Amino acid sequence: MAAITLKDINKQYGDGFHAVKDVSLDIADGEFVILVGPSGCGKSTLLRMIVGLEDITSGEMLIGGQRVNEKAPRDRNLSMVFQNYALYPHLTVFENIAFPLRLSKTSAKEVDERVRHAAELLELTEHLDRKPANLSGGQRQRVAMGRAIVREAQAFLFDEPLSNLDAKLRGQMRTEISRLQKRLGITTVYVTHDQVEAMTLGDRVVVLRRGVVQQVATPRELYENPVNLFVAGFIGSPPMNFISATVVDGRLHTPFGEWTLPESRATGLPGREVVLIGARPEAFEDASVVSDTIREHGVVFDANIDVIEWLGNEQYAYVPYEAPEDIRAQLAELERELDSEAMRTQLVVSLDATSRIPEGTTASLWLDLRKVHVFDPASGENLT
Ligand code: ATP
């Protein structure tokens, strides 16, 4: 097992495309780190540079304290688990797991011991004689991990391993990978474009945009304190709502009325004329179900509710809203980049299951102002 250190790593492809820009990252021994971001942000390139499948244009990469820039993949002792698991269909589970040991001419006795030990860890013992075709997707995944275990690799690297699976199996595998990683304590770097995987699996998450690291933080920190509009919009589903506001004498003039932020949230307002207020769906509530003591921490305003989605434990209410002209272009770009829902034209509000607001009516909503963020619409920076 080993720590992985990236120092000012850059990747420029042959055609001059700058895919990874000045990435520095310290991954601790045993840590589970997720690289996440929309398609084309450079996450696979970064992973491939760690494995050694891609040259590093500039910067330094250390694994276990040793510089590996010039080392071939096989000399890095890392184990990569791909989407398709790369299992040999004609070999049994035993032989698939044993494969790397056969290559290194390990004695038959030791092969047997190590494969059985890995199979036990992965709960594959009873399937050792089967062929991959007769395994479930989850079991195949574990065989691929078994190979990494017998090699005693310094780290596991995963490139979108679950993207071919259906939603249910993906959920199960997520839990399984998380459990195994904790049990084995192996340094793991995991690439995904799925923010749910990023939030549920990692100790820390690295959010990438156009080759540049935006934020490195625990899932909770990313959710609660996103550094900019991009991270705020990417993490969370349904996404954060963005409401434009002009600042007049420290008060916010919004399409939903005049609001005064509590001191803790208002630090970014002085000197600003226009800001974007970010509020997650759960910062809102049906005003009629909010108690008086809680109500004073927020504002109550009228909103047209055109659609309600009932989910049993909560409901999503959709509020049509037209972002003003000057920020529409920026939100449109964010929507496109994040492949996200319509941020320019609606708010998505989460309501308590007990709320009885009918669709197609104007209702009184409450927004918890202690939970809002203030963004600079031009730079996207979170000013809160
Ligand atoms: P995805 O989720 O779609 O796989 P990604 O974040 O993993 O995306 P990369 O595969 O790392 O993205 O690619 C990052 C950028 O580098 C993309 O714009 C891609 O087109 C570009 N790129 C990748 N490989 C090459 C190459 N060999 N030559 C030139 N550009 C490349």
Automatic annotation (TrEMBL):
It comes from the Bacteria. Pfam families: ABC_tran, OB_MalK. One of its GO terms (biological process) is carbohydrate transport. GO terms for molecular function: ABC-type transporter activity; ATP binding; ATP hydrolysis activity. The keyword Cell membrane applies. Keywords: ATP-binding, Cell membrane, Membrane, Nucleotide-binding, Translocase, Transport. Residues 4-235 form the ABC transporter domain. Gene3D superfamilies: 2.40.50.100, Nucleic acid-binding proteins, P-loop containing nucleotide triphosphate hydrolases. Transmembrane segments: none annotated. The keyword Nucleotide-binding applies. GO terms for cellular component: ATP-binding cassette (ABC) transporter complex, substrate-binding subunit-containing. PANTHER family: MALTODEXTRIN IMPORT ATP-BINDING PROTEIN MSMX, TREHALOSE IMPORT ATP-BINDING PROTEIN SUGC. NCBIfam families: PRK11650.1. This is sn-glycerol-3-phosphate ABC transporter ATP-binding protein UgpC. It comes from Jiangella asiatica. The gene is ugpC.
